[in-house]
Amino acid sequence: MEDLKIPSFEDIEKAHIRIEPYIHRTPVMSSSAINEIAGCKLYFKCENFQKAGAFKARGAINAVFSLKEEEAAKGVATHSSGNHAAALALAAMKRGIKAYIAMPETAPEVKKKAVAGYGAEIRYCKPTLESREETLNQIIRETGATFIHAYNDFNIVCGQGTAARELMQQQGDLDIIVAPVGGGGLLSGTAIWAKHEKPDITVIAGEPENADDAYRSFVSGELQPAVPPNTVADGLLMPLGRLTFKIICKYTDEIITVDEPAIVSAMQLIWERMKIIVEPSSAVALAAVIKRKEEFRGKKAGIIVSGGNADLRKLPF
Amino acid sequence: MEDLKIPSFEDIEKAHIRIEPYIHRTPVMSSSAINEIAGCKLYFKCENFQKAGAFKARGAINAVFSLKEEEAAKGVATHSSGNHAAALALAAMKRGIKAYIAMPETAPEVKKKAVAGYGAEIRYCKPTLESREETLNQIIRETGATFIHAYNDFNIVCGQGTAARELMQQQGDLDIIVAPVGGGGLLSGTAIWAKHEKPDITVIAGEPENADDAYRSFVSGELQPAVPPNTVADGLLMPLGRLTFKIICKYTDEIITVDEPAIVSAMQLIWERMKIIVEPSSAVALAAVIKRKEEFRGKKAGIIVSGGNADLRKLPF
Description:
Radius of gyration of chain A: 18 Å
CATH class of the largest domain in chain A: Alpha Beta
Oligomer: homodimer
Largest sheet of chain A: 6 strands, mixed
CATH architecture of the largest domain in chain A: 3-Layer(aba) Sandwich
Number of strands of chain A: 10
């Protein structure tokens, strides 16, 4: 039976205390050039500088360190196209247990290398949800490892929410907070924390038009099936889960979809002006801000930069 | 008659006070992955996040704000392949005066755009020192603008030295400080400050093998003519000047040359592991550390990351 209990802000606080010894408190950066273009003040929470190169380390470490000893002893397993895989591998290494990863053959090289580098066991599968789940189930049958879902998981959502908690400590007076949405783990944790700490804050998500199941689910009020996604934002390919959908409906104000050229151009803007490496998924949030310039005019908005694991040999610009 | 007066540490302090309202106090970053590869602790002073994307803003702003009113009124002029041009254009804009730049047609697009963006007047020339100087002289005849040399200039050296001053405030216990050397402005300022603040610190420069006039001058004790440079490190193409040569001989302990594959691989390491964008010239310092691993083992070394103005459409890896 699926657990649809929504985490509270205390659950996020507890997660933060649990993971703090193992994660970076990432910096918040600004760019006057980008502020000028966007017509508002943007504060980028740089999870591209997080361990394993993405916010996913927060959730994975929280999930792995929440396991009981006897569960942990058998290891953890997941399927992931990249960042969650690396994060779970890192978390398992930190706890000294095994991680088994079902990974699509098509995942970026840089992500494959990272997972292997943390000592996880990779089993390659086809880049379909079916093949990923089948490979994962086989791993679990063989090893008894605990499945840690990439986002539709109570402890994962709690861990991801710690990025917003840090951001709001570092920059207290935000009017708006923006996160990209794929499976919805980051957005869920961000929204729970932000609405607790500042009830009148506006929580906005950016989503690729070509992977817009969250938008369609949000506006219809019913979890919509994903159509095969086709976006450069390779971290946002997964559909919402039932838990993340429930949280997002409760705490998110708006989902803004953006097209592919807008994502690529926002990514290039961040690289050129801020001199930081962000993956395409991270640019989706800035693309949403630029698309709805009027809505953001003169406001202070925090943007969660999800990660920096871009494949340097396949830049989209 | 050329002024070969060497700046003192007080001159660097005064420069720092003069420029502080206009520059960023850039962060110092570390990477446990790179520390492991290098076998020492490295602290990267991230001048890639500096205004105009490079340390050059420090020197240019110091030089422009050191001018008397009547000099400033006629504007400033220089020849530069990129970062000094953008920095001088920025500095002139901050003071509200004109900047005239003689720029090789072959300069990276991103640098041309930056210079134009700061409102400077660009005159294109051939990518030879002769053509650059001829174009510059014509500008000066026409306008009466003050020539601000990119590095062989007292005020420029003072400004560049402020990066080392900040770094040593931010990370006090360095055994070694490393900077790349092209014309020698950054290295000169760095060396003067470092040896003042910590007389037993080791000052090391990294230089491309394919543009090694500083190394040959340093070891022979005589300013050597440059042979046409041929390196990916496009910020290090200029030969030492008489002032910077004199300073470097006095305050630098060693110049380490590195080959092109080492520069490219160090650059890729910084991009992949630190998720920051640095230009090839900045990677020369890390390449020097990795080449002489034994010399750095277990030490704490500060690295001045010179800039982040890499042409994203022409990556060398």
